[in-house]
Amino acid sequence: MTLSLADKDAIRDLVATYAHAVDRRRWDLIERLFHPEARFAFGPVQGGWREFVAQARAIIDPCIATHHQLGQVLIAPDGPEGAIAETYMRAMHTVPAGYPVPEVFADRGETYAVIIAGRYIDRLTRYHGEWRIIQRTGVYDWREFHALGDADLAGLPQSARGAHDASDPAWPVVRQE
Q1: CA 74, CA 121: separation in Å to the nearest integer?
Q2: Fold entry, domain 5-156
Q3: Domains of the chain by residue range
Q4: Please, which residues have CB within 8 angstroms of residue 36's CB and are 6 or more apart in sequence?
Q5: pLDDT (tens digit, 0 to 9) for every residue of the chain, 177 residues total?
Q6: Following DSSP, what letter does each residue of 117-173 receive, concatenated?
Q7: DSSP β-ladder status, 82-95 and 112-127
């Protein structure tokens, strides 16, 4: 199988939509990204995509902010009907005091930042004519923990900060279907 530029572009959009969905807490978008039988494995988050959403919400929703940056993406054919993609990523999580999932991020009694660098290795297939992830394996390359100090956004007006609802200016970029 040969992947067209349109195929590769669609796969890149799919991966970018995932980052948008997690950072903006648009969990309803995840269904459009994963095949119904998809499996997910990244550190403590394991299982089908529905279990992933429940586990990810428990980890991400209590964070004050998250920010996923995607880097280079390599995409290759994988069998007659599939593709495999490796996407480099860096994700920052602002973890509050009293964080409720200590097996993921410790409660340090103060707000701090966790920076995770790693890669998503996705196996993809077409589902009703659209590319979907059927297997995602996350790989950690490194993690850092930092005190925030004055690095928070408390001093900025609300209009200058990102939001986890339709008030975020990027909300219309990914439309709900």
Answers
A1: 10
A2: Nuclear Transport Factor 2; Chain: A, (3.10.450)
A3: 5-156
A4: 49, 127
A5: 799 999 999 999 999 999 999 999 999 999 999 999 999 999 888 899 899 899 999 999 999 999 999 999 999 999 988 999 999 999 999 999 999 999 999 999 999 999 999 999 999 999 999 999 999 999 999 999 999 876 667 777 877 788 888 888 888 888 765
A6: EEEEEEEEEEETTEEEEEEEEEEEEEEEEEE-TT-SSTTS-GGGS--SSTTSTTGGG
A7: antiparallel
